[in-house]
Structure formats: structure tokens, C-alpha cells
Design a protein that fits this description.
Radius of gyration: 17 Å
Number of strands: 0
Number of helices: 5
Distance between the termini: 38 Å
Structural class: mainly alpha
Shape: flat
Largest sheet: none
Length: 113
């Protein structure tokens, strides 16, 4: 139980740190957010839980390919906001477009093997 609480505390703290940094400096918040800390932490937890480097290889490889569709969010959101679309609607549309991009990437990855 303590192990899961520790994992939760460390993982949640990352989100809080990024949001607090972004309040002070969007550049600093973006730098910390763009570092794949979440992925690194997930790989550490996965390795700690399984000791299986094959699972780490698979996770890292899949993350690499799924970074591409995740960029849709960072393209769509600022465009929608610049056109005056309400923030929450912009987030919703951006997440929807990103989900579609993920789906298309998964279809491509499946066909490519």
C-alpha cells in the first residue's frame, strides 16, 4: 500500500510542480513539461515492478511513435484559442483531434507491424 501511495505522490507532484512553474514562467513550465519525465518515471516504476527490460524497450518504442500524434494537441489548441474559441471547448476539440490522430497512428503502426 505504501508503495502505491509513494508512486502516486511522486507522479502527482510532477504535475503540481509543472503547473506552479508555468504560473511564473511559461518557458520554464514548458521546458519541464517537455522533458519526458512522466515517461521516465513510468519506465522506472515498470522496471521496479517487473525487472523486465523487454517491457521497457516496448514501452519506449511505443512512446516514441505516439509522440507524433500527441503534437496535434499543441498545434490545435493555440490555433483555436487565437480564433477566440472558449478555453474549455478548445481543450475538448484539441483532445478530440489528438485522439483521432492517436487512432490513425495506431492503425498505421498495426499495418506496419
Amino acid at each position: 500500500m505504501w508503495y502505491y501511495l509513494t508512486k502516486l505522490l511522486i507522479s502527482a507532484s510532477l504535475i503540481v510542480v509543472i503547473s506552479e512553474l508555468a504560473k511564473r514562467s511559461s518557458v520554464l513550465g514548458a521546458i519541464v513539461a517537455s522533458i519526458p519525465l512522466t515517461s521516465v518515471i513510468a519506465m522506472i516504476w515498470l522496471y521496479h515492478d517487473t525487472g523486465d527490460t523487454g517491457k521497457i524497450i516496448a514501452l519506449a518504442s511505443t512512446i516514441f511513435w505516439l509522440v507524433i500524434p500527441s503534437l496535434v494537441l499543441f498545434i490545435a489548441l493555440p490555433i483555436l484559442l487565437r480564433y477566440g474559441v472558449h478555453f474549455y471547448l478548445s481543450i475538448g476539440l484539441s483532445v478530440g483531434l489528438t485522439s483521432l490522430a492517436y487512432y490513425l497512428m495506431l492503425v498505421i503502426m498495426k499495418q506496419a507491424g
